[in-house]
Amino acid sequence: MGSSIRAIVDINMRANDFSSSIVLVLGPDHYIDVKSILGLSMTLYRNQTYLLYVYGPDQLEAKAAMQEVFAKHHLQLQLKED
């Protein structure tokens, strides 16, 4: 399995462990639900910094998990703070 496919699968699987909404923001009008493997597979590139919104009952745990999985695949992540 290629490294980008592994990253997509890892991010998607980890996001689905949480009930919080996890949304990747790409541009002013482009939002991707990270729990959607199809949407995620069409937007993940290594040369970009990703802005991620996480909100819900387990958002602190979800944010930590997303930071970990993005770092594992050497993807730049910026979390939107409340």
Plain-language structure description:
InterPro entries: HPr-like_sf (IPR035895). There is one protein chain. The chain is of the alpha+beta class. It has a single domain (3-79), classed as Histidine-containing Protein, Chain: A, CATH 3.30.1340.10. 39% of the residues lie in helices and 23% in strands. A four-stranded mixed β-sheet has the order 2-1-3-4. Strand 1 and strand 2 form a beta hairpin. Helix 1 (3-15) packs antiparallel against helix 3. The radius of gyration is 11 Å and the shape is globular. The termini are far apart. The mean pLDDT is 88.
Give short descriptive properties of this protein.
82 residues, alpha+beta, Histidine-containing Protein, Chain: A, 4-stranded mixed beta sheet, 3 helices, 4 strands, transferase
Note the topology.
Elements: H1 3-15, E1 21-25, E2 31-33, H2 37-41, E3 49-55, H3 59-72, E4 76-79
Parallel strand pairs: 3-4
Antiparallel strand pairs: 1-2, 1-3
Helix pairs in contact: 1-3
